[in-house]
Amino acid sequence: MSAAAQRILTAAAERLAARGPAGLSMQDVAVAAEVSKGLIHYHFHDKETLLARVADWVTEECLMREQEALARVDAATALDAVWMWLTAEIAAGQRRLLFDLAVEAGPVLRETLARSAVARRAQATDTVRAVFRAFGITPRVSVAALGELLASVVDGLVVAAAVDAGRDRRAVFDAFWLGMLALGRETP
Fold first, then answer.
1. Mind listing the pLDDT tens digit for each residue in 81-134?
2. Range of the domain at 78
3. Is the pTM of this model over 0.90?
């Protein structure tokens, strides 16, 4: 990706986080990225294509941060690592951006957001595996089902934080993981 295209994506994501999809104009993005509107159209064709590429980029960034958070965890650090990652994601606002984009989604963006949801569920499944492995236990139910559950809880916490930012949700997180880990058995 060219430096200009990267600046455009960054500027679009920042503008989306500040104003939402309805408030995004190609001119605002061009000014923020210090490029011409023509260059935006050259790289991204139209607003929906730009939004779809922002959604892809945000998804990639979120998944990379989740993977990094779990790179070297053990039983003493696994849940704190997941909590620190989640609170950082909520504070960054990028994951919430994916939900905001769904409101304005045309066919290209809907397809992109569907792929994003699949990728986030797959990463959540990997997160469940990493946490269970750190504790030396094996789930008694499908890891994929637990990954779906984790993805739903994360999405719910992201949306809840957008609605009620001042509330601490650590107790919800802890109760969720207590229930999840209760579904494990010692790995032979």
1. 999 999 999 988 888 888 888 886 789 999 999 999 999 999 999 999 999 999
2. 47-186
3. no
Q: Say whether both 94 and 142 belong to one domain.
A: yes
- Give yes or no for a contact between 57 and 13, defined as CB atoms under 8 angstroms apart: yes
Token readout for 6 is 């990267």
- Residue 74's CB is within 10 A of a number of other CB atoms, namely 11
In this structure, are 89 and 130 located in the same domain? Answer: yes
Q: Are residues 92 and 36 in the same domain?
A: no
Q: What residue has token string 């003493």?
A: 76
Band the pLDDT of 167: cuts 50, 70, 90: confident
Q: Give per-residue pLDDT as tens, 29-41.
A: 999 999 999 999 9
Q: Distance (Å, rounded) from C-alpha 178 to C-alpha 106?
A: 39
Mutual angle of helices 143-163 and 170-181, in 10-degree steps: 170
Amino acid at 121: R
Q: Which of 73, 185, 175 is nearest to 136 (CA)?
A: 185
